[in-house]
Amino acid sequence: MSLCFKRLRFLFVAVLFAFISNAQQNHTGIEIPAHQANEKLISHAGYTLSYNEKYEQANWVAYELTSAETNSIYNRTNKFLIDPKVITGSAENSDYAGSGYDRGHLAPAGDLGWSAQSMIESFYYSNMSPQVPSFNRGIWKNAESFTREAAIVNNAIYVVTGPVFTSNMTTIGPNKVAVPHSYYKVILDYLEPELKAIAFVIPNQASQLPLKYFAVSIDDVEQLTGLDFFPLLPDNEESKLESHFDVNLWSWQNYNHSNKSTTSKIKYTSTSVQCSGTTKKGERCKRMTKDSSGKCAQHQN
Q1: Does the annotation mark 44 as catalytic?
Q2: pLDDT for the residue 279
Q3: Which fold has domain 3-258?
Q4: Catalytic residue among 105, 244, 257, 299
């Protein structure tokens, strides 16, 4: 897929998710929170973000993730860079040095290895947020793995993720980068056979709880953040998708246990394959999976 096409697609995704810049009200008529008033919308090869100059990080990062894109072609660069598109200047190395916090990805490098450019841009400081190391390398990593598995099982998903800003955050570094108390991740499957969505709100701290414990509705995240994630969806679909979530429609086999050893229990094949299960219509399931059983989550159940 060409970078040009991806950029056009991501501009569309940005609108679908949370295009609220230069607006005074969201679709419900509720006034946009003050921290959204002067946001800067920035589009990169692999994701679009809303930059918050006050807190020196993104309000949200949005992107589409397909099954094919979960097969990374390019390795992590591990080279953190100032985002050249943030004209006011993004956070930088000195902000995190000696802080005790990880430079936590909002859009993870593991979702952006499909091109050299997207991998480089995944390490922009505009895509980073100060995260407790045990959180970043534990439950947050599990949430990222869950997202990739969801893309494989459902062929393509939309993802929006970001920090939850509050009034009592501490800061780090010369640029006073805010340290959020929690983070959210919203996932939308907008492909048949069933449309579904799920979200997570996870405190910025170590946790031994299973990932499912942190599952919430999109409405819950909207109330917490003041964002409106899917304003362009038909009203009836938006209401249904955002107000309800069904955990049984998602694959949890690798995430139902304690967070302590999740990654060691995940068993995938090296490439995605079409699910060998049969639909109610007697047709072969069109979902893709990397699970060693050769079946998607629904047909494993």
Answers
A1: no
A2: 66
A3: Extracellular Endonuclease; Chain A (3.40.570)
A4: 105
